[in-house]
Structures are given as structure tokens and as C-alpha cells.
Here is the input.
Amino acid sequence: MSLRVGLFGGTFDPVHNGHTEIAKAFLTSGLIDELWVLLTPYPPHKQKNIAASYDLRLKMLKEAFAGMKKLTISTIENELPKPSFSVQTIRYLKEINPNREFYYCMGEDSLSKFHTWKYYDQILKECDLMVARRPGVTHIGVEKKILQSTHFVDHDPLDISSSQIRECVSNGISIDDLVPENVKHIIEKESLYK
Here is the structure.
């Protein structure tokens, strides 16, 4: 039987408690055996908005997910040709891991924008989606073919965003409740987001 792996990608600039909670929801869903967190170097649609370097975002990710069982941090997207499109990553991972079945993981708020992703229909041909529920989010306007390939996972989301954290730091507002302690130390030590 093939191992079922969830792929959870993002720029994680910075990683926060919302990310760690959603990762737990994917891992406890019973749908996957492992979760691979893919750090996106510089996604085509967000190129200008990346504040922390790839290496520092990777360092923060490793700290945030340290000790979480069945979770792997992957730098594969930094090794593949740029720009980094999700479908290329999925195809490459499937090719080198023929004994694994992949799911592409995201929050429910991202599902409504999924049809705007480059090659989104190709992603659906490669794997199903795993989506963590978010209260109050509707699927009005989400294409039927997307919903047919989606597995929903129960999740009680934290209302936190990376942009909110960057704004707090730049305004001198505490981020104690928003990020893991070790991540906060890195942000302070490296004077990030000021």
C-alpha cells in the first residue's frame, strides 16, 4: 500500500501559530500518513512582498515544527527550476516517489482563489486537494471539478496572517501569542520586519 503524503506549501514569511495548527489538523485527519512542508523560495505572484531571506524563513520553519512527528520540511522548490509553480513540484515529487500518493494541502480561504492559480487544472490531474475548513467560508463560485477533487478536514483556525505579524513587528506590537517562541527569538535576533 502506498504512503499518503500531504504537501503544504507556502512562503512562511514568517511561519506562525496558524500554520502549526493547520499542520496538526492535516496530520490528525486520518487521510495522510505524513505531511511535507514545502518552503516556496519566491512565488511568481508574491515576488516583491518577501521580507525575510529564504535561509531565515527555513530556519524559522525548522524551529516552528521541531518535534512534530510525521512532518518533514522540504527545500525541493528551491532546487527546482524557477519560477516555482506548484504543478512542477507535484510532478517531480510523484516521479521520484512512485510509491507515494500525494494530496495538495491548503486552508479553505485559499480554495476560493484556487482557480486563479497557474495550471490549477493540471494540479487536479496530478493529485486531490486537502482543505482545512474555515468557519464562514462558502464555496460559491468554486468550480464543480475543484470541489469534486477536494477532501475537507475539520479545523478550528486561528485568525493570524504573516502580513499581520510583519505589521505588528514594524509597529512595535507584541507577537508573543502569534508565533512559536523560537520563531520570535529569530525575528528579534535578526531584526526582521522592522
